[in-house]
Design goal:
InterPro entries: ConA-like_dom_sf, DUF1349
Low-confidence stretches: none
Oligomer: single chain
Protein name: DUF1349 domain-containing protein
Order of helices and strands: EEEEEEEEEEEEEEEEEE
Mean pLDDT: 95
Shape: globular
Organism: Microbacterium aquilitoris
Region (Disordered): 1-22
CATH class: Mainly Beta
Pfam family, one: DUF1349
């Protein structure tokens, strides 16, 4: 099992504010089940030319020297089904990190957007049917993204430049760019101290 974020406290689902309200939510035994709208996504310009700003992200403040993490299950089956952790400054500066179903397989990745989006992916087919943890630590001039499947240690996904004076919020997100009916169960949302070390 992955180590929880240091000095962690649970964030109540009611503390967050949606960037775009999902089709439906349901609290059940401490979990939050989020059903996405068909066509929901987050992307800016690069390669595709379009701007999508309709992700379902439930956000609460992420100050410097803090970390936030979410746990969720992955019932993905359609192109670009995705869920994970979203960090937002404004509509042109944001990060999404987590699991995405692309070209027939599960991938661990991140999109970093500063005016325009980029995209990085690594296949994780053995993560299917397992609980996923995604953690982002904010410290100094960086966001550090880590992730794991249940029973494995967290792995480093990405280190992202991020100015210390930015006012940012973060929390769980879901997108379903290509279909209706995607419901993702989030089992935990935690905030705590930033990770002490990069490695």
């Amino acid at each position: 099992m992955s180590e929880p974020v240091r000095a962690a406290v649970s964030v109540d689902w009611s503390e967050g504010t949606w960037t775009t309200p999902p089709r439906a939510t349901e609290e059940r035994e401490g979990m939050l089940l989020v059903t996405a709208e068909e066509g929901s996504d987050a992307w800016r310009l690069t390669s595709y030319g379009f701007v999508h700003d309709t992700e379902h992200a439930l956000l609460a403040p992420l100050p410097d020297d803090a970390a936030m993490e979410v746990e969720f299950d992955i019932p993905f089956e359609a192109q670009f089904d995705q869920a994970g952790l979203f960090v937002r400054v404004d509509e042109t500066r944001w990060v999404k990190a987590g699991i995405e179903f692309a070209d027939g397989e599960l991938n661990l990745g991140a999109v970093v957007t500063d005016g325009m989006s980029d995209w990085s992916l690594a296949p994780v087919p053995h993560w299917r049917s397992r609980r996923i943890t995604v953690r982002i630590s904010r410290q100094g001039t960086a966001l550090t993204v880590r992730a794991a499947a249940d029973g494995e240690p967290l792995r480093l996904v990405r280190v992202i430049p991020f100015a210390a004076d930015l006012d940012a919020s973060a929390g769980p997100f879901v997108c379903a760019p290509s279909r209706a009916g995607l419901t993702v169960p989030f089992t935990a949302w935690r905030r705590g101290a930033a990770d002490a070390d990069l490695h």
